[in-house]
Each structure stands twice: as structure tokens, then as C-alpha cells.
Amino acid sequence: MDERIAETIAETVPAIVPIVRIQAEPFDAAAEASALVRGRTDVGAVVTFTGLCRDEGGRLAALELEHYPGMAQAEIARVAGEAARRFPLQGLVAIHRYGVIRPGEEIVLVVAVSPHRRAAFEAADFMMDWLKTKAPFWKREHPLGEAETGGWVSSKAEDERAADRWVR
Amino acid sequence: MDERIAETIAETVPAIVPIVRIQAEPFDAAAEASALVRGRTDVGAVVTFTGLCRDEGGRLAALELEHYPGMAQAEIARVAGEAARRFPLQGLVAIHRYGVIRPGEEIVLVVAVSPHRRAAFEAADFMMDWLKTKAPFWKREHPLGEAETGGWVSSKAEDERAADRWVR
Amino acid sequence: MAVKILYFAWVRERVGKTEEVVEPPAEVTTIADLVAWLKGRGEEYAYAFENETVIRAAMDQLHVHRDAVITGAGEIAFFPPMTGG
Amino acid sequence: MAVKILYFAWVRERVGKTEEVVEPPAEVTTIADLVAWLKGRGEEYAYAFENETVIRAAMDQLHVHRDAVITGAGEIAFFPPMTGG
Questions:
Q1: What kind of architecture, by CATH, is found in domain D3-79?
Q2: H or E element: which one contains C56?
Q3: Tell me: the pLDDT tens digits for C63-82?
């Protein structure tokens, strides 16, 4: 390949292809993290974020996550691609579950891998802030001890503000 | 216990006791994280940071970490206690290895657990910044293909600046 | 122009369907126009879109603003602010 | 006053020992005084402390500044800036 073309591609194309999965099944955070690092000797930092379902003081039996199938995958892939462009990453995984998830179970996983800790921390933080406000998922509560399904979780102004930290 | 005394204690003593270990042996990041969360239904966020030995472009055979045994434990416990006071955590683990560590192997682990992601991210970030500048460990390089031990790793001004972000 | 519309979460519950194909008249050119036109189709729509500024829209699986032009869209979705993560 | 001194990393290598017990005279009251006194004990000490402001100190396993008073200390350590994590 012509060297000038190769340089142009290196500047515009992210060095890594993030792994994005939307699934009902549980995930294995440790296995995802070690898959990114296995066989490499150039990684310095791995940041793993796991988001879990809380029982909200014993009030909740479960959360039910509805999603927009095609767009959920596409939107998280866009956010992950932006993270890969902004931060010098060696690997990035994002997994988001849907369906009924009980307290103590995992909802979302982000793993960011980089030579240095700052990029890994910032990429994971960025991913979560943008996932919260851009990924088409909606949580509905299933209160404990009631036959009826509960209400939809409201979006938080603090999540909008958190995402705004990254606007540039 | 008198209720007023109990309240006073709750205000001044961190709600959690961080787990701090200094060891030569490898650690199991996933096991440490799940031990903090197991049986709980009030956790919302788990942030795991793992620091690994890099080969520095194939130049290094290993890093050797010297430490000040009693003080390493005491100093990391002090940093962890400060993190527990600053952030609303439900659990905090810090493990730092010493001895000869090869590229791809893990050096340091921090796991922070909280109801909300911001506290978990900030606590892990804070821990790493302060560990870098306060924990009495010194890295020496073992270059590949040389009989002689290499030089001591120099401290970085950027690590000092990173730690200064948290001064208040 | 026929266009597929998807509804999610409480917008879906209020409209009472997950998706439908509609044929709005030619003068409906933006997301805002489409919302106004849908509201005229029955009280379930009026209820779903009663607080219009809260509702988010996506066109062919991309987030869009109220003034986005819908000409040529294959799939338009309406939903509340997202609460994933 | 007898006090135990520990050395780490390249400070240890330059001094040529990991620890020792010393008895500085009464006028040695601060970390800076102790460094100055140690430097007079031989060229290995002069070499170890040649760039004094780089060397860090801990007293009874707590980081201290150069002007810290050492009276009553059980254990004093000297080392380069830390590079853990």
C-alpha cells in the first residue's frame, strides 16, 4: 500500500474495532477482560465497569429492560467507535443485557484496555455516560409483592449533565 | 449503644473497612470483585482497575518491584481509608504485588463498589493516582537479553500532577 | 409516502401498538409534522404525545431532532428518554 | 539517640546496606540534619544523598518533610520517589 494512503487511514480509522453485544444472557466480565489482554505484553491498564440491578432498599423484585434491537447495537457501536477515536485504546468491549434482570444481577459491562491508566479510565467513564443517554434501553420496575408491573424509570438530569462533560 | 453516640460514629468513621494486601503472589481480580458483591442486592456499580507489566516495545524481560514492607501496607491502607471517607463506597479492595513480574502479568488491583457509577469510578481513579505517588514501591527494569539488571524506573511528573487533581 | 413507525416503552403502551405502517400526506415533512399528524389520528396518540418535547425520535436507527426531514426514511421510532446503562 | 535507618532502591544500592542503627549527636534534630550528618560519614553516603532534594524520607512509616523533627523516631527510611502502581 502507498505509504501516504496508509498514514491517512491510520489517522482517520480507529486502531481497534470495539466488541459490542446486546443480549438477554448473563455475561462473564472476567472472561471478556482476559480475552482482550490474552497473549499481549503491551497492555498497561484494564478498567472494567459492571452495572448491576439494585433492589432499591428492598422495594424491587426485578427490572425489565426493553430495547430497540437494531438501534441498540448500532448506537452502542457508534459510542464505542467514538471512544476508540478519542482515547488510545488497545481493546474495548461493551455488553448490554435486556429482559428481566433481578437485584444483584449484571446489566451492563464495559472493559477498556490501554497502555496507560488515564485512557482506560476515561474511555470506560465516557462509554457509561454516553450509554446512559444514547443507548435505546428503557427500564421498568417490578415491585416486590405486587402482581402488577410497576412504572417506567425516569431519566435523570444528572445523566444528561454527565454526558455533557464530554462534549467538545 | 446510645443512639447519639452511634450517630456520631456513623458520621466520622468510614462505613466500610477497605481490604489491603501486599503480596508476591498473583491475584484473581474477578474473585476479589465478586467477593465484594456476593449476597448483596444494593450494589449498582463495580469498577475494577488492573495494572499490568508492559514489555516496553519488547525491550523488557521483567520488572522487579522492591517495597518497604510495613509501610507499603500502612500507606495503601491510609489512601484506601481516605477514599472510603471521600466517596460513598460499599466495598474497596487494593492489592499490590512485589518481586519479579513479567510482561502481561498483573501488578496492582483496585476494586471499588458503590450504589452509583460516579463514586466507583472516582474512588478507583483516586486510589491509583495516590498509590502511584505515595505507596513505597520502586520498579527496576530487567532488560531482555542482558545478564545485568537494568536501571530504576524514574518517577513521572504526570503522576504527581494526577495526584494533585484530588488535593482539596 | 408509506413509513414504518415503531413505539417503545410508555409511548408504545399509550399508543397501544409496537409498530405500524402509516401514509402521512405530502405536507408532513419533518418529525414535528409527523407527531402533529399522528396526534390527530386518535386519543391514544394524543395521550402518547401529550408532552411532545419529552418524546425522542430516531430515523433509520439514528437519533434525530424534531426538525429532521423525514423524506426517504424507512423506519421512524418514538420513545421516552433512555434509561439504559 | 540510637535510631534505625532503612534504605531502599538506588539509595540502598549507593549506601551499600539495607539498614543500620546509627547514633547521631544531639544537635541532629531534623531529617535534613540527619542527611547532612550521614553525608559526612563516607563517600557512599555523599553519593547516595548527592541530590538531597530528590530523596524522600519516612519516619515510623509515615512520609515526612525535610524539616520534620526526628526526636523519638524508632525507624527512619530514605528512598527515591516512588514508582509503584
A1: Roll (3.10)
A2: strand C56-59
A3: 999 999 999 999 999 999 99
